[in-house]
Amino acid sequence: MNELRRNFLKRTGGLSALVAAVITGAIKPADALAAARNEAAFKAESTADALKALGMSGATNSTAIAIRAPDIAENGAVVPVDITSNIPGTRSISLFVDKNPFPYIGTFDVSKGSEPYVHVRIKMGKSSDVRVVVAAADGKYYQASKEVKVTIGGCGG
Amino acid sequence: MGDPMRIRARLVGDVADVRVLMAHPMETGQRKSGGKVVPAHFIRQIRAELNGKVVWEAQISQAVSRNPVFAFKVKGAKAGDKLSVTWEDNKGDKRTDSITLGAS
């Protein structure tokens, strides 16, 4: 890829539009996910601390979040996880592995034109609950979890 | 700059079922090789755009598997639309690849 095209994409891409929108106050800074990475959450060593850093503590348990992951993962280095949220107005999907050294895996923002679905492959150090927190348009958080047993860990290999 | 991504998309009505494979080591910074810790090197941020408009974004940690695969579903898509995906890693490296929907 050449430099010119890269710069062109950078200048004309959605990011600049997003930044402009934030500056003009068209959208709330909370919507500008790309702008701010929540380092505290990524560095948290427990799911509770990560949730606190993200302001997602006290999420309501929900059966409207479907997590598809293997019951037993033979290889912790690649554990496929499929998440579908049936919660109306789902804005983002966040993923945590409770017993990983750093439980917060990430957040997928589907609010700008995607369906509330994501597939991702993750590393799991050992058997753990995989926890999903959904942020909904009503400003509330909903969660669900699924246990995945790992026979060979994926961290430190 | 990294190696090219492989982006596949299937249109189901006006929803693009997108699957992306990225070539990246996703080093956690915890693994040791020859007694030395391999420094962390992982994708932190991903963005998908449909005709230049951001439609999907992700912030991820080092715990996503090596050579990450993501799937997501973009609404309001039609054949001929341009879908591009950009990732950026913790060393500031970036890569963007695009496909045209409906063209296989």
Structure description:
The complex is a heterodimer of chains A (157) and B (104). Chain A contains four helices and nine strands. Chain A is of the alpha+beta class and 157 residues long. Chain A folds into two domains: 1-36, no CATH class; 38-150, SoxY domain (Immunoglobulin-like, Sandwich). In chain A, the strands form two sheets. In chain A, strands 1, 3, 5, 6, 8 and 9 form a six-stranded mixed β-sheet that branches. In chain A, strand 5 (90-97) and strand 6 form a beta hairpin. Chain A is globular. Chain A starts with a helix and ends in a 7-residue tail after the last strand. Chain B has 104 residues and is an all-beta fold. Chain B has a single domain, classed as Immunoglobulin-like. In chain B, the strands form three sheets. A four-stranded antiparallel β-sheet of chain B has the order 6-5-8-9, with no helix packed on it. Chain B is elongated and about 55 Å long. The interface between A and B is large, with 45 and 42 residues. Strand 6 of chain A pairs antiparallel with strand 6 of chain B.
